């Protein structure tokens, strides 16, 4: 156990702003989440209306009120590496520091509600997990979905990632592929004896340049696709006609396509070329039709937009749980040295979640 006193005191837990600051000031770079998880677990175990479980440095607490619907509030406890931005500092209405936006202000929402709301209108699962910022084999949500899938059973999930106080629904999928062109080596002085694979890449680049990406509207949310070359490799030596060129492709696709559909589309675009998929992650549909989601949107009171980047909502969607992103931080500031969050966004977002979950 920790020998220091838990900074998450009852007064701190009662105020989402103070709680954000206290969480930011417990350093928790990925794979170093033990101290913060110990503090959060100790708080949750002291709450009589919650049952609390822990797996590694992931902790889950839930109400068991027998409500017909269960919702998840989820946030990761880790941050990217510090960058001269620890501990937190205050400047007017702004709190600066590593994790202020991504996403300890969101974690503070969930922890504040877990402690202060004894009779929510849905049963609530509060889920605080480790290692979101690094490879998925460490991700606490992935690990628990394998070891204790029943912990995550729910009708709807809110991931408290930074969205600047609006709802970003679903997320786009992503696929990486390599298009290879082949030729035949020859001496550059007698190039007509060979076939230049780099010249062969010209047609691939032409198709990419002429490509018109789709814009898709699903459940009122706009998703804008993108198909881009992100790298190109070829060449043997300064006097050799190259026999191989590889173009790396990244495709960001709307959630009306699954990975198989995305691959089929890439094969169509690059028909006649050798294409190999190297990595794929499915997107997630907005999933706004459940009653809990509709009531959440009503509490927010602003139209949702589509999430363009890939987030852990896709992991919830893969478990059959519709999920959306909602948090106070500005997503454009995540991972920046001057990462910060507006105190009014914390107060407004906490009030929104309280409006949604408080008994009718
Ligand atoms: Zn995050």
TrEMBL record:
Enzyme class (EC, first level): hydrolase
GO molecular function: acetylornithine deacetylase activity; metal ion binding; succinyl-diaminopimelate desuccinylase activity
Source species, domain of life: Bacteria
EC number, UniProt record: 3.5.1.18
Names of the cofactor(s): Zn(2+); Co(2+)
Catalytic reaction(s) noted: N-succinyl-(2S,6S)-2,6-diaminopimelate + H2O = (2S,6S)-2,6-diaminopimelate + succinate
SUPFAM superfamilies recorded: Bacterial exopeptidase dimerisation domain (SSF55031), Zn-dependent exopeptidases (SSF53187)
Gene3D superfamilies xref list: 3.30.70.360, Zn peptidases
Keyword Amino-acid biosynthesis listed: yes
Domain Peptidase M20 dimerisation: 173-270
Keywords annotated in UniProt: Amino-acid biosynthesis, Cobalt, Diaminopimelate biosynthesis, Hydrolase, Lysine biosynthesis, Metal-binding, Zinc
One Pfam assignment: M20_dimer
Pathway annotation from the record: Amino-acid biosynthesis; L-lysine biosynthesis via DAP pathway; LL-2,6-diaminopimelate from (S)-tetrahydrodipicolinate (succinylase route): step 3/3
UniProt entry tagged with the keyword Amino-acid biosynthesis: yes
Chain ranges passing through the membrane: none
Subunit structure of this chain's protein: Homodimer.
UniProt-recorded name of the protein: Succinyl-diaminopimelate desuccinylase
Organism lineage string: Bacteria, Bacillati, Actinomycetota, Actinomycetes, Micromonosporales
